[in-house]
Amino acid sequence: MVLIARLHKFLTATVDRKSRSRTIFWLTLSLTFAAVYGVLGLKQVFSAEYIVQDDARQHVFWMMRFVDPELFPNDFIANYFQSVAPAGYSTLYKVAATVGIHPLLLHKILPLFLGLISTYYCFGLCLEMLPVPMTGFIASLLLNQHMWMTDDLASTTPRAFIYPIFLAFLYYLSRSSLLPCLGAIALIGLFYPPYALVAAGILVLRLLCWEKGGLRLSGDRTNYLFCSTGLGVIFLVMLPYALDNSEFGPTYTAAEAKQMAEFAPDGRNAFFRPNPKDYWLTGRGSGMFPKSLFTPVTHCVGLLFPLLLFLRSAFPLANQIQSKIWLLLQLFLASSAMFFAAHATIFKLYNPGRYTAYSLRFIVVLITAIALTLIIDGVGYWASRTATTFHFKSLVALITTALIAVAVVLYPCFAKKFPTVGYVEGKMPDLYKFFEQQPKDILIASLATDTDHLPTFSQRSVLVAKEYAVPFHKGYYSRYRQRVNDLIRAQYTPDRAVLQSFMNSYGIDFWMLDRNSFNLEYVKDDGWLNQFDSTPEARLSLEQGKIPALASAMTSCAVFQNQIVVVLDAYCIVK
């Protein structure tokens, strides 16, 4: 009985002036787990020479210009991804390169530090809602498990920064710390602009309160101060994006996108799905609820939160929940509003699903941590209401607490793979070294899969690659699509004049071919290639037995080859 009482007090004691050491203990434990997960990620990403996170191949490769300005000269693809990179994101990598930290190295080590910062603010934010240090530990642990079981954090793309920065905003807002809150708002706009609009929605919603059965304007002047200054900061950081007149704009309209194979249900960027459930609820990009919302599955406990509040007599710690928890409702409403606004203005405000994905994850993590704490407190309270020294109730309380501890702390041990973060490994080191030894201004034409790796691992420009087929901005993708169509036509044409004209027009220096390129099955089975207008023509030519003009050069013009690809010298092909 005494053991149960002491354990119950240790786990569920609230914060007071005498409990600073207890808070430090749980925070230190939280940071320790975050560091362990981060080290596991580092171990994975440094396990081979040519490893990079999948999405970093889009967002980081061009930053090697910060190390060597001669790289990617007049590179259309590099220019595009540089133009869409948020100012804070690109500046961070530029500063790091200035002090000698290579962009690819920074991209690999940043997740560890972003995870630690996210942990600190998640822990603090949770204590603002339920002042129990163990709850902060559970919340931060669940957040870290989620971050290392999805690829957002490891990508170190702009979306990776939403975890530490937006959690910092929510933390400082809940504590009414004006200057740090404004700083966090500015960083949101500089690193992940879409969520600056969510922050704006939260600030506006805080001007309202529920009083006497209806909505009223808040009587708290602090809310007006935060709203006015916060909106001012958001206006300043978002103004450059609003005034941007990039050569790669505008975005495709909904009517235009619906006619494109890329956005069809089986397209590479599937968006318009015929099933309303998929389109509005779970579809990637278009749906409100991300499929990874309950990853890890322990997040499902959060669904019990309303029931635990309703039965608060059996879960007395529910009475310690602070009014600041309403911030989660404001976050949900602001995110939902932006979700529907993004649907109404398709692609002008980016993918609608991005506005709710991270907000819902924050909400689920926090309410799950609170729900688990209430359950632990509830069973301890239930077991302590007896005069017996030790009996069945005490055993149930111990088993319940132990099961929760095992499920929360050891969950990664039961996962098939942890961390699961989307790192990809280049399997052709000799190929990458070959191109790296070529002049910096070469242009490589290829439809082979490994073309995706060349800009990152060889720092050389490619005409096209599947990884860079991002169909949102018309000024970029219309030209990109034309390049792909021209490349397909030239690769499979039997007319040498068409081939030579293509190479002269684009200034091709090397042509990399998959050894199976001229097999009919290769063209038929490639779903990406079949999204382009030139593919049926190429397929028909192969079906008719016509031999592509490029085929004869596979032996006479090869300058590099392995079991998968053959690299041809363009000058030799033209001759």
Major beta sheet, strand line-up:
6-5-7-9-8
Total number of helices: 27
Distance between the termini: 91 Å
Number of strands: 9
Q: What is the average of the pLDDT values?
A: 91
Low-confidence stretches: none
Shape: elongated
Strand content: 5-15%
* Alpha carbon gyration radius: 28 Å
Short description:
The protein has 575 residues and is mostly helical. The chain is built from 27 helices and 9 strands.
Protein described:
- With 575 residues, the protein is mainly alpha-helical.
- It has 27 helices and 9 strands.
- The strands form 3 sheets. Strands 6-5-7-9-8 form a 5-stranded mixed β-sheet. A two-stranded antiparallel ribbon has the order 1-4.
- A hairpin with a 3-residue loop joins β8 and β9.
- It is elongated, with a radius of gyration of 28 Å.
- The model has no long low-confidence stretch (mean pLDDT 91).
